[in-house]
Design brief:
By secondary structure, this protein is an alpha/beta fold. The protein has a single domain (about 5-180), classed as Alpha-Beta Barrel (TIM Barrel). It has helices at about 10-15, 30-35, 55-60, 115, 135-155, 170-180; strands spanning about 5-10, 40-45, 70, 90-95, 110, 115-120, 130, 160. The chain has an eight-stranded parallel β-sheet. It is globular and about 45 Å long. The protein starts with 5 loop residues before the first strand and ends with a helix. About 35% of the residues are buried.
């Protein structure tokens, strides 16, 4: 995890289900940790997070230092199940993406997705770039440069997420290498 700009996936559970990335004998509750040791960030729908208890502790407790976990509040009824940042092991709490009003949650910044996520067709800066999967390195570089040029005028660039559930670990790794080559 050597880049300042974190690279990962937007919908981690869909990525986790569709990949040969994980060893066959790896228990499901260890998959997030395994992913977090390979990539720097992920967004997880709150409905996919195990409820409070031992299984959730196993999921979150061993996350590595520097990993950024964002939660998408896809079901407002689950707002009471949002983990406190101290439950995230060494990981940092990113944002709670929510389209509705939620009560304050200690240690989390609540953000409407439209205020957080930048897409290649946007003209205004957002701190997290949400990119479609692309095999074209020049296309990825163009999108990243466009996003970074906006960040230089407006704020800090935090994360690059790929939103396509068909993205492969190799494509994520190639994106991270591109980010490193760009000095980001």
């Amino acid at each position: 995890m050597s880049t300042a700009l974190k690279v990962g996936v937007f919908d981690w559970p869909r990525f986790a289900r569709g990949q040969d990335f994980y060893p066959d004998d790896l228990p499901p509750e260890w998959r997030l940790n395994y992913y977090a040791n390979a990539f720097e960030t992920a967004c997880l729908p709150l409905s996919e997070l195990p409820g409070p208890g031992e299984e959730r502790e196993e999921w979150l407790d061993s996350l590595p230092t520097g990993f950024r976990l964002d939660l998408w509040v896809d079901d407002p009824a689950l707002a009471g199940a949002i983990p406190l940042p101290r439950e995230l092991g060494g990981a940092e709490a990113g944002c709670l993406l929510c389209e509705t009003t939620l009560p304050s949650v200690e240690g989390w910044q609540r953000v409407h997705p439209d205020a957080l996520l930048w897409r290649p067709d946007e003209e205004r800066f957002r701190p997290v770039a949400l990119l479609p999967r692309a095999d074209s390195v020049p296309q990825l570089r163009e999108w990243i440069e466009s996003w970074i040029s906006l960040s230089e005028q407006s704020g800090n660039a935090d994360c690059l997420w790929v939103e396509d559930s068909e993205v492969t670990p190799g494509q994520l790794e190639a994106l991270r290498q591109l980010v490193e080559l760009m000095g980001l």
